[in-house]
Amino acid sequence: MSDINLIEAKNLYRYFGETHAVDGVSISVKAGEIYGLVGSDGAGKTTTMRLLVGALLADSGDATICGYDVKKHTEDARAQLGYLSQRFSLYEDLTVLENIRFFAEVRGLKPNEWYPRSMEILEFVGLANFASRRAGQLSGGMKQKLGLASALVTRPRVLLLDEPTTGVDPVTRQDFWQLLIQITSAPLNPSPLPAGEGQRGEGEVAVLISTPYMDEAARCNRVGFMRHGKIIAEGTPSQLRSRLTDRVIELRGSPLKLLRQVAHRDSDVEDVRAFGDRLHLRVREGKADLVASRLPSAIRSEGGEVDDLRIIPAVLEDVFIELSEQAYE
Amino acid sequence: MTLRLASIVRKEFIQILRDPRTLIMTLIIPIMQLFLLGYAATTDIKNIPIAVWDQSRSPQSRALLDAFRSANYFTIAYEVGSQQDIQTLIEDGRVRAALIIPPDYSLRLAEGDAQVSVILDGSDATSGSTALSASQLIGQSYSTKIMTETASRLGRGSGITPPIQFLTQVWYNPDLASAYFMIPGVIGMILYVITTMLTATTIVRERERGTIEQLIVTPIRSWELVVGKVLPYVVLGFFDTFEVLILGHWWFGVPVRGSLALVLESSGLLLLSSLGIGLFASTIANTQQEAMLVVWMTLLPSIFLSGFFFPLEAMPPFLQAVAYMIPLRYYLIIIRSLLIKGVGLAAIQTEFMTLAVFGLVIMGAAAVRFRKRLD
Do B218 and A103 touch (CB under 8 A)? Predict the structure, then answer.
């Protein structure tokens, strides 16, 4: 990772009437970094992305892409970025190759460059065999890969991906992330994206991705949690998880319904959630040992059984639930 | 032409060729409209069905009927025997007019003061007024003929002629065929309507399908997007112009007396306006339906106030003033003069310049309003 911030947002504000869609967001993403923007629907992720690409104008605040001010040098900034919007936004009546060619050409690839480059990128995302198929006839996952391919075709230094894997099957999601990781670690050998001859696109890529999936958030270098237009927590996944060190108890036993009731009654338990056949209890700071010692007897006294109870490291999902509830208060 | 512009144009052409709706609209609809308007919108009224109640049944009354028959304006569809029959036929719409010859027709004709009555269905003003003037004309010329005949029989020779004779000459369109008036109008209307609608929907479609978001984020300049989107429709517009011009000439016999280059140049100027209006509509609308609505709100008044159907001179001053704001009006004056009269640029330069100014202003306004942004 280098120290240059390829994506830089400072105090972005954007209101839609009374709604504070983006309410003072600052983000910086360095080359080689994948920054994940997470949060529920309506948290302001898409609007933030649109402000960064200049599709919407910010009410105030500044954004720069590779050092180009998005407001003043809009097209220079856009020349540096690949963007995949939440909705599939390629032409369904054009073929895969025609789509790629169009976006390659309008983003500045020369007539003798677009074809080898397009085939290379289609090969990379696994769509080379579908080059002459109409985009409208691709499956959802293939469409997203095509979207990624046309975002990547000019070797942009900045990638903005707005929920690229929403509604995509798990296998394709895995593929998609493998591609992303290869892109950001481009200088490795053999390189999946050989750098062009002295053109832009050399060097590492900065990725800003929004996602509703916690397993995807965990793959990012850094994560920002958005709620009501604000980033209310930011850090590496492990930094975020450390917010809840010694505060999550995993409980297994039966019947689950009784376990849940008893846990809820404990005044030091803030939240109870089922994870499959287990419960995750979030407890007040410093109270984990106390709860862990008194809970089994309370359950047994009501006829329940405890198979396993232990204090565990938090997963990101625990953190986000905690953060969401915090934001409500 | 920049590379980006060329890419947009090529992409747009691919999409047009793969979209049956657009193809039908540009290739088939103009032909349909041409034939529909060339035939249906004709104001040449011939063979008006008429009922006759001949109470005289004399050689003289039959001679009068022959005069009606031979004039081509009327077809004697029914011979009836009562006023009641006439009323029924007119109410049913089986005849548009009726001719009543009184029993004493031949007697009074000999005395020189015969009367016949013509009843007209005025509910359709156009055919009614044609029938009115036609029957008056036939009646007058027939009575003049009788006067002359009587005079010569009385030995006064053929010296009796009406004191004034109007020698009318109709220039450019001696038969007063309305196709000569309509077809050039159809060219203008098709060019105007189709290009406006197609442009309005082409950009809105990008918005509707979400592809605009991806376009916005490319470094395409606004003007490149506008020109690239509009250029293919200019080509289609000119294609339509030729299509209608050739068919109008070949099938309806409309002459092309003026310079073809001038026809194309002024069509180009009209396209500036129509594409501008379409582009403008697409900056307002979010869906294709909305765009269509906006377009039709401007197209309908444009068509009615352009002088396409109704002569502008017949409109009240207020509407005439409004009509000055309509680009199609100037084009229709130009194209009719060019095709039918065969005039040169000098005769139409005012309209030509006005059309150019309109085109530049509308296109300019639309291009300024057009933003590469979502809001």
Answer: yes
Tally of structural domains, chain B: 2
Q: What confidence score (pLDDT) does residue A58 get?
A: 93
ipTM of the complex: 0.80
Residues of B in contact with A105 (CB under 8 A): 3-4, 6-7
Distance, CA of A143 to CA of A166 (rounded, Å): 12
Mean pLDDT by 10 residues, chain B (375 residues): 88 92 86 83 74 90 87 86 90 89 88 86 80 84 81 66 70 71 84 88 88 88 87 89 89 88 92 91 88 89 85 86 92 91 88 94 86 74
Domain co-membership, B216 together with B351:
yes
Chain A closest-CA separation from residue B5 CA (Å): 8
Q: Searching chain A, which residue's CA lies closest to the CA of residue B216?
A: A55
Which residue segments constitute the domains of chain A, with CATH numbers given?
Answer: 5-240 (3.40.50.300), 246-312 (3.30.70.100)
The 10s digit of each residue's pLDDT in A25-38 is: 999 999 889 999 99
Alpha helices in B252-316 (DSSP H): 260-284, 288-304
- Phi then psi for residue B136, to 5 deg, are -65, -40
Closest residue to B7, CB basis, from A50, A81, A102: A102
Inter-chain CB proximity A56 and B3 less than 8 Å: no
**Is residue A173's pLDDT more than 90?**
no
**Separation of alpha carbons A85 and A148, rounded Å:** 10
Q: Which stretches within chain A are classed as H helix? A: 45-53, 74-79, 96-106, 114-125, 140-152, 170-184, 214-217, 237-241, 256-265, 288-301, 316-328
Cα B31 to Cα B24: distance, rounded to the nearest angstrom: 10
Which of A55, A83, A108 is nearest residue B373 as measured by Cβ atoms?
A: A55
- CA distance linking residue B107 with residue B38, whole number of Å: 48
Domain extent for B153: 48-171
Distance of CA A283 to the CA centre of its chain: 28
Count of A–B CB contacts within 8 Å? 79
The residue in chain B having the minimum alpha-carbon distance to the alpha carbon of residue A14 is B375
Instruction: Give B211 to chain A, closest Cα distance, Å.
Output: 4
